[in-house]
Structures are given as structure tokens and as C-alpha cells.
Amino acid sequence: MTRVLVLWCPDWPATAVGVDAATAGAVVARGRVAACTAAARAEGVRRGQRLRDAQRRCPELVVRERDTDAEGRLFETVAAAVAALTPRVEVVRPGLCAIPARGPARFHGGEEALRVLVQDAVVEAGYDCGAGIADGLFAAELAARAGQGGVVVPEGGAAAFLAPYPLTVLDRPELADLLRRLGVKTLGDFAALPSGHVAGRFGRDGAVAHRMARGEEPRPLAPVGAAADLSARAGFDPPAEQAERVVFTAKRLAGELHEGLAAGGLTCVRLEVVAGFADGHVLRRLWRHDGLSALAVAERVRWQLSAHRPSGDTGAVWGGVTSLELVPDQVVPDVGRQESLWGRASVTERIARAADRIQALLGHQGITRPVLVGGRGPGEQVVRVPVGDLAPADLPDGPWPGRVTAPAPAVVPAVPPDVELVDAAGAVVVVSARCEVSAPPATLRLRGRPAAITGWTGPWPADERWWDPDRARRRARFQVTTDDGAAYLLAVEGGRWHIEGVYD
């Protein structure tokens, strides 16, 4: 088993966007807590928590939107401090990096001495951190989070160290929820299950999680022999002065790299990105690559370039980039994946290549796909995700009091048109603070054309984000039918009516 030292910055990425670790601050992405400071954690705020739940636990929470470029740029300082002690620094993600521990531990006088030395180097660079050493990356990360600054788990003791932890640390919420309903509550309970039964019941991902719970490597050891050079390289003439051009090239190179690995039945679990600059500087960094898509590789190239960017400029790179190389640092046999029948996979691949070409012309947000999420209104139940991106992992969940009942509208206007809803006397229908309707609606006026109301139901009130004055919304929804055979979902907000959906 490989001995690994993991360095974890607990207040990352809160530090990267200027949230003081001494304040009750948090960073959010897609309405959920992406990271929080120690002060916020003391109040019960946790990563993955819905923002409104976090603000209920900690009313003085200071909230910042996530800035991945700033995270990558600032974490380069941490990686450089660790690299001064050992050259084999592997960045798992901004805020978390790892190094092999055996060699450096022998050089620096033992594992505990190495752990303290690395931790002190990062603290001197200006960042709070924890450092832990254990068998394997998963156990080492939890060791870095344990105690006051991390611990050293004795060799062979990873399973006993992991046993008391809850299943949530596996970062597989669906699997954790299913196991909890089956009576399995801790990693120790999960590790005690027979491996064959776990693989048969929960599939490959469940088997990987089972190996992690037992303190083993996620993949069985399977050394491969020497292979041909599978690196992907590209040059820039003239030098690329904008990071976006390099990122698009990185995405293409990552696709070529994946194709070359797949042809040899291999997959990459650790990737080295080498960027050469016009001033002669070469920036190298190792990234954990297991399961990353071509787009995820391009994102890591963006983080790496952000460390070589002029301050205040979001796109330029000092001197320009002259070369980019993606080098598979560690390859293992690919265990394969289940493809669709009757040639569907080849069609999907052609569509993906066409989407890549369109994105290269129009930008990353140029082509998107809809993803269903939770929400009250029909327009809130779909988010648009750029093609190539994974669906958001932190989707909001229910229940949603006041949610519109089925069936869903057939059409949801991008810009809801304003309408007038009046009663029999010609007065505008209003909804009071107690959700009382002033009078039964009689006529709907859309673009000046009246239509008689033949049926209506409502209101469904929704008082959202009442704790945040800047983002608070109070709405009421109605379903109405008109004498021309149309059916609408209407909403009133701030005394104004608009069409939120049209039924087919």
C-alpha cells in the first residue's frame, strides 16, 4: 500500500475569494455551500448544505460566489511551498494536494517530522492547513482533517482509522442513503460486507467505495509495461496571449490523449500539464486525473495558467504561451464501461465531436443541454448545462411547498409576458398578504386582447428567501382557462401579473 501525505486547506476556497477565516463566511455555487470557514462550521454550516439552511444556522454568514480562477491562482502558492520540500506534488483540486510519503519521510527524519515540516511551510506561506499521512489518498485526506492539524495513521491501520466515520465521507450521497436504509451506518459496517456481494448489489462504483472503506486503493494494483509515448503536445506561433485560446487547445489535446489511451486499453489516473512561456519559464503541475473528462482537464489547465497571469487581467498571460503538453504520468489498465446497444455510442460520439467544434467557435456557453432540477416554478426546474460538462452534483432537493402541481406547462416563455387579470367590475385582481383573492378573475388581457375566464384555481403562494432582503421574492400562482381554449399558469409579483407557462 502506498503511503501518502495529504495537505488540506480547510478554509479553501473561502480564502481564495477574500472571506476572512475568522469570520462566519462561506463560498456558494449553484445555491449550495461549496466551502466554509472554521467560524461557520462551528455554527453548524457544512459543505453541500443549501444556502438558506446555512443562513438559518448562521444569520451573520458572509457569502461569496465561487471564483475557480482565483482558487487555482492562489493555490499555486501552496503547491510551490510544498514543492520546495519534494518535487512530486500532485494537486487533487485547489485546496487539496498530495505527495508520496516514503522517500521524503526517510530524508526528513520520519513521517511525523515530514508532516510537521510540510504544514509549517504552508503556514509560513500565509495559509492555514492540515497535513495527514496514511495508506492511500482517501485515508490520508481524512487524516489531514482529523485532530488539530492532522495525524499520522500507522502503516496497516487505515481500516481501523476509517471504521468510525459516517458513510457521507465517501461523497456518494445516493449510495450512502441506500446503505443507511439497509442499516449500514459507518465505514466499518460497510467494510465488513463481503466484497462479492457488494459488487453484485451496488456495481462497480459500489465496489470502489467498498475498497476505500476497507482502507485499500480504489483500483486493484495492475502494473503495466513500458508503452509508447502517449503525450499530447501543441505549439503556439505567435505565442497565445489569451488563456482562452490555450484552454480550447487543452480540450482538444485531452481528447487526443483519451483516444490514444483507449486504443491501448489504458486509462490515466495522474496527468502532468507542462506549459511553456515566451520568457522561457516552464510551469509544470501534476493533477489527479481518474475519471476526468476532456473539459475537466481544460479547466485544470485554466487554473494552472491563472498562476501566471497579470494581476487584474482575467484573460492575458505574461509573455504568452508557446507550448502546451499533456503527459500521462501514471496509467493503468482500463476496466471498461457498458456501452449502449445497436451502435448508439457511435452516434453519441459524433454528436459530441460536433458540439466540441461549435463550442470552439461560439465559446464554452455556446451550446447547452437542459437538466431537470428541483424548484417551485416551471422555469426554475430546468438549468442549462454546457455540453461536455457533468450535470451539477449539488442539485437542490425538496420538498417544495407551494410547488405547481402536475401536469407541467408545455411552454415556458424565456421572457414572461405581462398580462392583466381583472374581475367582473374591471378591477385588477389582487392577492392579500393572507393569500386572499380580492375577487374571482373574469377576464385575461394579453397584448390588449381580452379573453373570458372559464375556470381558475389558486392561489399557490411562495414566500422565498425572506431572510435575504436583496433576494427575497413573494409570489402567488394561478391556473386559468379561457373561452378560446387556452390554459395558462399565471403569477403575480409586486402587483404585476405575467404568464409563467402555457398548457398544451
UniProtKB/TrEMBL annotation:
It comes from the Bacteria. The keyword Plastid does not apply. Keywords: DNA damage. Pfam families: IMS. Residues 1-148 form the UmuC domain. Belongs to the DNA polymerase type-Y family. This is DNA polymerase Y family protein. It comes from Actinomadura spongiicola.
